[in-house]
# Entry
Amino acid sequence: MTILQNLQKILNPDCFKPNPTGNSIVISQCHKLADDGETPLDWTQELKITNLDGDEIFICFDWDDHKIYSRYLIGNAETLTGKACDYIMLKEEADEWHVYIGELKLGKNSFDGEKISRQINGSLAFLRYISEILLLQFNCDKLKKAKIHKLVVYKKPLQRTKNRPKIKQGMKKPLSRLRPHFGFFTAPHNDITMIGLPFSQSSKHHSLALTQFMRRTN
# Structure
């Protein structure tokens, strides 16, 4: 059996939502607070990953009716089990499995390295638990040996550089032509990649090609 078939035997079907449509998938997150972490806000942030190869496996443990990993675990802001990440992507490349664990966030003011690290590591710990089940039940060690990549995708406000000429009134530069910004958190959380995507009030949805999403940063 494939690793997907094995996972489908032990995970709730809800874990495999959303599903790719064609060669893309849309991952969403509803935000209740603005960048400052205080101002009430109610809108949905979306990340569209395009140009999929078709062999990717997407998993989510953050649905409304599955907010905690287990009723036997205490989950709060100070524990690894407090909140799951928005998405996990599994993909095999050159006979090696890779795991991408990440979050959708607003601007940089809405998150910090310590909280993001705790959240991602909580999802990683749960994924390692699943990998142990795969090994014990199906003798499948592919997930156990997988290489881990930690990501945060956030909105990056548009900023005009001093040397760039002003765009004439009525003309807009398509957001799709603006390149994402890749960076890292500072130590000790510098194993987490930050991907800043162009954002404006008229376009709150992000888009990344699979090759950009999988860009090697660690």
Q: What stands out?
A: Residues 113-138 form the longest helix (26 residues). The two ends are 30 Å apart (CA to CA). The helical segments are 3-10, 113-138, 210-213.
